[in-house]
Amino acid sequence: MSIVTEPFQILKLHRKMSDEAFITMLVTMVAIGLFLTASFLVPNFFQWQNVVNLVTNNWAVISLGIGVSFLLVSGNFDLSVGGIVALSGVLSVWFAQSTGGTNPLSTGLGFPYPLATICALGGALAIGAMNALFVVRFKIPSIIVTLGTMMVARGIAQIITHGSQRNTNLPSEFGFLGNLTMFGTSIKLPVVLMIVLLLIAVFVERKMVFGRITYWIGANPEAADLSGIDRAWHITKLYLFSAAIAGVVGILLASEYQSGFSNRGLLMEFDALVIALLGGVAITGGFGSVIGMFFGAIILAVVTSAATGLVLSPDWQFILKAVAVFLAIVTQTWALARRNR
Fold first, then answer.
1. Which of 118, 197, 288, 328 shows its CA 20 to 30 Å from the CA of 25?
2. Is 102 within 8 Å of 263 (Cβ atoms)?
């Protein structure tokens, strides 16, 4: 009797798995498979320290991917995060530099460092509020709005740095946050912050009404409106959340390198979008997960690291990453279509 019913029980468990869990499992398997393949091709790739480096070296993009993923699930883009990273970092330096500099690039506003970081974060939130205003109030497509605000944020950073960078006349405590190591290890505070953000995001996504509303808005905006959900306010909070993460990332990077650089975070917005798509987040909204995004980041990190280990030129590395992204998305689409056939 048990032998006969066992296949039906397995089939039943298979059907219980949601499409989202199925894609997340698929992305995880692809990440593990790529890592094992790279271990055969690249000398000394299969090491625990290399696994740690794949995460720690990409903490900034993974952090940005959290906010970008939530917005994608809601049916919106955020391409402004790279510009916000540059702007918040430059602002934190400019606000913290003393007023007695010998040249314009070494002269700032002389704020205490805690106040400088708060004001820099306020600049990041201002860009997030601008995104929400034009997307929610004026109904301009989010991809156009956030592409524009990304250029505005980076342009302001370039004006403040005169197209260069600010790295002198800073208070002694400026580099503390970005270089603080945790628990007697080499793991820095920004990496721990990324892990905390991931855990909070997973909890919100799966256990809180806020996460469910995000999915409902992305899957069926009209039905969300009819059910009484304040879609405009919810999307506004998502843009502020994404901008806040980007602002913190920019402040921590500026602290780590003790400089404000207008080109910092260049193309990070596209990397954050790519890892979300690699992780199975639907570009049309209503589908995806933060865990999938994380393993999407691992896929991109493995491909990049393996290409470097194979001493491929930057041009070939770019092509390899593009092919990996294309194949991953096509495979996900095919597997999901076949599963629901």
1. 197
2. no
